[in-house]
Amino acid sequence: MAESRDDRREEQMPQAQVTMDVRRVDDNASIIDIKGELTAFAEGVLMDAYNQASDGRVRAIILNFEGLEYMNSSGIGLLVTLLIRVNREKQRLLTYGLSEHYRSIFQITRLDDAIGIHETEEEAVEATNV
């Protein structure tokens, strides 16, 4: 059976090397557990996770970076896109589990001015109740 052009193109398209699981903490917040690489290929996965995490009542989205293996400039761009969506919905974006390396990148890019950065899940969840 001959391969179609679409079949060959699908084989050549890089796939996202990331999984994201959504957990509802309480009525105020949901957590997105990020495991793997946050690159341009993760856009669909991240936006699907955000849509699942955000049901209109949620006031805060918390990103868990404990399982993050790699993030490049495209991944930072995805976070900016997510931040715009979160702000449009009048929600807050918080994180925890960032390594020192990625914390410094958040500082250099000034993302730490717009995204609440916390050490632990408990601290991030507590910050949603303020």
UniProtKB/TrEMBL annotation:
Q: Name one GO molecular function term.
A: anti-sigma factor antagonist activity
Query: What InterPro entries does the record point to?
Result: Anti-sigma_ant, STAS_dom, STAS_dom_sf
The UniProt entry, under Gene3D superfamilies, shows:
STAS domain (3.30.750.24)
Q: Tell me, what's a Pfam family for it? A: STAS
UniProt superkingdom: Bacteria
List residues of the STAS domain: 27-128
Q: Which NCBIfam families match?
A: ant_ant_sig (TIGR00377)
The record's family statement is: Belongs to the anti-sigma-factor antagonist family.
Question: What's the name of the protein?
Answer: Anti-sigma factor antagonist
- Biological source species: Rubrobacter tropicus
